[in-house]
Design a protein that fits this description.
Elements lengths: L3 E3 L9 E2 L5 H4 L3 E3 L5 H4 L5 E5 L6 E6 L10 E2 L2 E2 L6 H4 L3 E6 L8 E7 L5 E2 L4 E2 L9 H29 L3 E9 L5 E10 L1 H5 L3 H9 L2 H11 L2 H13 L5
Antiparallel strand pairs: 1-9, 2-10, 2-11, 3-5, 4-5, 6-7, 8-9, 12-13
Length: about 240
């Protein structure tokens, strides 16, 4: 179980973190992504939308495998693609809300999971220098966390507008593998292409001006990687090295 603690230069002056990927963090078959990642994700991953169970809002995700905890991009203790989604990269860091004065919004502190196996005693990246100032590594991680926060807001604005325009529809993936086994994936959504084609020019221009149209096309183009994901699964089932 994670144990998030806000970082400070006194308590964590000597702490080091290994930036190397670890299996326990990679064992997911979907990972939340933000729209600004789409250009990088497009090279490798199929991107869909899922409905958040708590909020009921849609959010984009990259599909990594067909079974729970199956990541077909992580083999031999490493990612075999050149881009890893930010939600994976940011581990073991998180943001913790810090209550402000009455009537003021809470701020966010950079925190770390002290139970993470990425925390090491030797090697790795230092979080603070000898003077207690944040290291370049920690500054980069803080920037990544802020990008995820702003990106999440952009993502919800994006999917919210898609819903208003009737541009999100559910899809059921039915795939058959080389060993004749079959898998049915439910709970996924994608862009409703026929509805997009019927949008009037004014609404298309609005989507374009907010970069939403660009993100729509990235999502649609990424679906070609479903067949690539099936091929990865087939090679695994056949005992062929990926």
């Amino acid at each position: 179980m994670a144990n998030l603690v806000a970082l400070n230069s006194q308590a964590h002056r000597s702490m080091r973190v290994s930036p190397l990927p670890i299996r326990e963090l990679a064992q997911v078959n979907v990972v939340s992504v933000i729209p600004r990642e789409f250009p990088r994700l497009l090279a490798y991953y199929p991107v869909f939308f899922v409905k958040n169970r708590e909020s009921g809002r849609f959010e984009p995700v990259a599909l990594l495998g067909f079974e729970p905890r199956e990541n077909l991009y992580f083999m031999g203790e490493r990612w075999d693609v050149d881009y890893v989604p930010l939600q994976i990269q940011r581990q073991p860091f998180a943001l913790l809300p810090r209550g402000g004065a009455a009537g003021e919004p809470a701020s966010l502190d950079l925190a770390i999971d002290t139970h993470s196996s990425q925390i090491v005693t030797e090697g790795g990246e230092k979080l603070f220098d000898e003077e207690g100032k944040p290291s370049k590594y920690m500054e980069n991680m803080a920037s990544m966390m802020q990008a995820l926060v702003s990106g999440s807001s952009e993502g919800y604005a994006f999917t919210g507008r898609l819903v208003e325009l009737g541009l999100i529809e559910s899809v059921e993936l039915n795939v058959e593998f080389v060993d004749r086994s079959e898998k049915k994936l439910q709970g996924l959504y994608w862009i409703a292409a026929p509805a997009l084609e019927k949008l009037p020019a004014a609404q298309l221009a609005e989507l374009r001006d907010h970069k939403f149209l660009e993100w729509i096309y990235f999502q649609m183009a990424s679906l070609s990687h479903v067949s690539v994901l099936v091929a990865r699964k087939n090679r695994l089932l056949s005992g062929v090295s990926l």
